[in-house]
Each structure stands twice: as C-alpha cells, then as structure tokens.
Design a protein that fits this description.
This protein has 376 residues and is an alpha+beta fold. The protein has nine helices and 20 strands.
C-alpha cells in the first residue's frame, strides 16, 4: 500500500494552485465541486487536492492498494473502535473504490483501490526537471538560453566525495546548443595552446603526445581526467601506454573539464564519454577562459536518435567544436556542493552557512571566485 494523495483546505486557494503549477511544476488535471486536483510525474491520477476554506487544514490523506489490501485494511479497522464508512465509488480523477476512517485525533484517512491509470504524460513532462526547450521566466526580460545542472554529481554528494557542483550557463538566445539527453564523446584542454591541437578522431596516446609537445614536457607529465567506466578501458590503456598520469573520477565530468583550466589541479586534458548536456555546460566554462573542446553525440538506439531529432539535430555524426556548442558570449557559474580541487563545498556551523562559487564571463574573460557567508 502506498501514500497516494493529500487534500488541503487553504484560505487562498487560487494562489496555492498557482504555486503548485508554476513553481512546483505539478500538473492540474481536474476541478470538481470546488476542489482542484494536481498530478505529478508518477502513476497516480493526482497527488494533491486543493479547496478554499476560511482556515488552513489537512483533509483526507489517501492511500492506494490492491482490492485485497483494501479489504484487509477495512477488516482490521472494523475490529477496532475507529469510525469507518462503507466502501463506495470515489468521485475524483481516476475514480476507484474507497472507504474512509477517522483517526484518533480526528484525522481523515481514505483507502482506495481499482483506480484508473492516468493518461501518459508528454515525453518532455515525464521527468521531474526542466526539459530541453522549456520556457521559464516572466517574459519581460531579454531572451536567453539557459543550461543548468542543479546537482552535477548526485552520487558524489550521496557518498560525500569531492567535486560535486551546482552549475548554470547563460547565453543570448541561440547561443547554446540544445543538446539531447544522450551521451557525447569529449576531449578538452585548457587555454594557452595552438588552435586545433587536439583531435577527437585521434587516439588518446596521440593527443597526449601532441599536448606534451606543445607544453614542452614529456608525456609522463601530462595529467588526464577520465570517468571511471568500463567503456573507457581502451582509452585508459592507451593513456597508460605513453605514461600519462591518469586521474579516474567516479562522476562529475563538468568538474573534470574545468580542472583543465586550473594548473594547480594537475589536470591537462579531459577525455571520454559523458552526458551531452553536461558537455554544453563544460564548453561554456571553457569559452570563458579560452580552452579547447570537441564532442560528438553517441546515439545508442532509436529512442536516443529520436531525442536528437527532436532538438533539431540532423547530422548525428557531426564533430562539435567549442564554438559550435557555445556560439555567443556566455556566463558560467559553479557553486561547490562537496569540497574538491575546484571549490569548497557547502559548510555550516555557528549559525552560519558558507558557500564557494566561480563566476566566469566570456565577454570579459574574467573569473571571479566568491566566498559567501550568510546566516542559517
């Protein structure tokens, strides 16, 4: 049995409904007898019901289950002294059969079975996040492209490992490639090298030799960051064959690319396959400091080819340069979530929250590091 929905009575129902839809992202599905119902991205017909009242209160809390589970629950309730209603048809989105019971502190619990499955969401809404091409804002300001990854490195954060970031890139409309949610082969280096030095179509060893020659060092002094994945075994073998220093990371390839711009990290090159949207974000960071980046989409099945087509991509074998991915001046912002080689993570203590951020601007080629202290 699962928690299905909650009913709320609020004095400002209209404002509450607007909050749920525009800020939370819930989807209105029906209004019946003054109650408005909202669904999420899961398989429940609705998860919140809002109605107007003079005072705020919680109405029925609903649970869903199989008919057998509902019958067993009703039988247990009947053996107690709790007031219980008979099973009846439910007049709400999804329908179903339900009975209601009153808890010891006058709470109302409803148990529902045999509901109808809601209609499938459009692909772009069937995920709890912004989708490619979604419009946000008031519409009153300049038109901008925004790429965002609120938590680059979810596993890193869950395991308290370094270099988890929250990142954002902004450019004038049309300035950022609308990358599909697929993989991308990537290679990147920092600033200060001749244009065209790296080549995505060359093997890893040759790229390391070219970078070492340009830098005036041996291949053994080149540090290369690679995601630790089985698919990168041949890349790692090639890098080690020329003696390059390989730094394997669990997650967070945006941080891996940015490390190429900071000599103190010891990383000279990023190489391997990661998310395409993350490739655009990383390219925006390099745009601000003058690095080099090449990428090519990796489309593994018909679904991913359809995603690419939906974003307007026709040449699926195209090799993208940094300027293809970020064609206009951009601003890139990264905030540390967990501490690492780039930024300190979020810290708290003594009633204070400390955050550490990088703000990069390609128009001025400036990089500003911020240390923010605020009460919390």
């Amino acid at each position: 049995m699962r928690l299905r929905s909650v009913e709320l009575a609020v004095p400002q129902a209209r404002e509450a409904a607007e909050f749920l839809e525009t800020l939370w992202g819930l989807i209105p599905v029906a209004t019946r007898s003054g109650t408005q119902y909202f669904r999420g991205t899961g398989d429940h017909p609705y998860i919140l019901a809002i109605k107007s009242a003079q005072a705020a209160s919680v109405g029925a809390i609903e649970f869903s289950g199989s008919p057998e589970e509902i019958d067993a629950t009703q039988a247990r309730v009947r053996r107690s002294s709790a007031p219980v209603q008979e099973i009846a048809e439910l007049d709400a989105p999804g329908g179903g059969k339900a009975f209601t019971v009153q808890g010891p502190e006058a709470q109302t619990f409803r148990f529902v079975a045999e509901t109808n499955a809601p209609a499938a969401l459009p692909p772009e809404r069937d995920k709890p996040m912004l989708f490619v091409g979604e419009e946000v804002g008031t519409g009153a300001g300049p038109e901008l492209d925004i790429a965002v990854d609120p938590l680059e490195g979810t596993t890193l954060t869950a395991k308290a490992k370094p270099n988890a970031l929250s990142v954002l890139a902004v450019a004038p409309k049309g300035g950022l490639l609308h990358a599909p949610d697929t993989y991308m082969d990537k290679i990147a280096i920092g600033p200060g090298y001749p244009a065209g030095l790296i080549d995505l179509d060359q093997n890893a060893a040759d790229n390391v030799r070219a970078l070492a020659e340009a830098k005036g060092v041996s291949a053994q002094e080149i540090g290369v960051c690679v995601l630790d994945r089985p698919r990168h075994a041949s890349i790692i073998e090639a890098l080690r064959s020329v003696g390059a220093r390989v730094q394997l990371i669990d997650d967070g390839d945006i941080a891996g690319v940015i490390q190429c711009t900071k000599p103190e990290t010891g990383i000279d090159m990023y190489l391997g396959q990661g998310g395409a949207p993350e490739g655009v974000l990383a390219a925006a960071a390099l745009k601000c400091v003058g690095g080099q980046f090449q990428g090519r989409l990796v489309l593994r099945n018909d679904e991913e080819r359809a995603r690419a087509a939906a974003t307007g991509i026709e040449d699926v074998k195209r090799r993208y340069t940094l300027d293809d991915l970020v064609s206009q001046d951009a601003i890139f912002i990264a905030v540390g979530v967990t501490s690492g080689s780039l930024l300190h993570g979020v810290r708290s203590g003594g009633g204070t929250i400390l955050t550490n951020a990088l703000v990069m601007n390609s128009a001025t080629h400036t990089v500003t590091e911020l240390h923010v202290r605020q009460p919390g």
